[in-house]
Specification:
38% of the residues lie in helices and 20% in strands. With 517 residues, the chain is an alpha/beta fold. The model has no long low-confidence stretch (mean pLDDT 89).
Length: 517
Amino acid sequence: MPRALLSVSDKRNLETFARDLVDLGWEILSTGGTARSLREAGVDVVDVSAVTQHPEMMDGRVKTLHPAIHGGLLARRDVDTDMQALREHGYAPIDLVAVNLYPFHEAVAAGVDLDKAMEKVDIGGPSMLRSAAKNHEGVIVIVDPDDYARVIAALRDGGVDRDMRRELARKVFDHTARYDRAIADYFARKAAEPARETAAFPAEMTIELRKIQDLRYGENPDQAAAFYADRDATRGLAALRQVQGKELSFNNILDIDAAVFAASAWAGDPLKACVIIKHNTPSGVAVGDTALQAYERALACDPVSAFGGVVAFTSEVDADVANAMAATFYEIVVAPHFTDDALQVFARKKNLRVIRMPIAVSRQLDAKRVDGGWLLQQRMLTEFPEDAWRVVTKRQPTSGELDDLRFAWRACAAVKSNAIVIARDGRTLGIGAGQMSRVDSSRIAVMKAADQNADLAGAALASDAFFPFRDGVDAAAAAGITAIIQPGGSVRDDEVIAAADELGIAMIFTGRRLFRH
């Protein structure tokens, strides 16, 4: 009679699996709570202690760490001396193991202390899994309850073949490696607690990913690509739901991430926000009383660059917005919700990708690949406290200018460096991005505004980093700008402030830089 050892913390589908094994003529060995659950369900179970001839010890800490168990798992069925050793000691093979481990991740996530966390470190479970996986040609090993049904189907169909056995063993080693990594990372975080600023960056780090999909290609057609998410992620792009349209490309996903990041600066704001992204940077940003008003104002900033872009909203998108968007070709529209009427309008454009996902950014690690390694940093939060802000010019900004500066500063955070944003009345008028010189970004922002005949008199300007020379201030004043917000920190700050005073411009230093490379 073949024997199966079942010892699980995750009891999903357990009773059905055990009954199916019994129906197929298997004997069930089990321990502790698993044995109790099976007996209560009417399944005949042999206690592991009856096999080991030794009682469980130390509140169940020692029960399966015994030669009767590991000999039964590790004995090679085609090696006569292994099988003879089993018989000499009165042991028998174990042909299937279904084990999943104590919930260490869940305990740590719940904030338990170190002692309680250690009680959730499984010893016997990983040992049985590794023994069975090492000898997978003789032992079927299951760590995922979702695999029960296919194992039963294979047993009914004549047996579990070598390919499935290897795949199940691979899942075991992957699972135990992640389990051990989680424990090591927990200790690293504990060790770093006295210096919390380093807690996110242990001496060694494993980045665990799961593939979501293969992509048609990368940034260019000659580059292969795929989309991976953090293994346990439930937020960010892992929460993305595509409602319609062509499959997403590498560049699409980058632009969606940029759009959600930019829009998240207004998440929870009573005004509705719209951001139009092109090549990973905004071409227009606006707020309004309605999503339609926000869209029309964002588009007005740069309707030429909007062509082929990605549009993100912080609020529900209705049919009025969908109809307004129909006049322009877009690759993607992103929002937390869409009305049924809006989806009907979008359905007329079969290739338009409609994405439903939350507009929020978490304080996760941001990783950038470099040749031979990785750069890791905390992701920029789209929160903009003003406690460090200070007016450095003789003239104070008016209340209207201050509102414009706040808006421009939020929008500037999403623009690629060197970043210049000109704004007024809750919308961008001109954006200059990604230039080697800050004054060039200023000129481009002014040029973009001029292309739409925008009047810059009384507008506000935001810069993601300090002005190294007064030329940027001179260019802003020549365009009619009356208020500037920037981090400050240049060796020529006094010269820049003097220029602003000379030109009657109000200027705020934030003390915070917003570089995005």
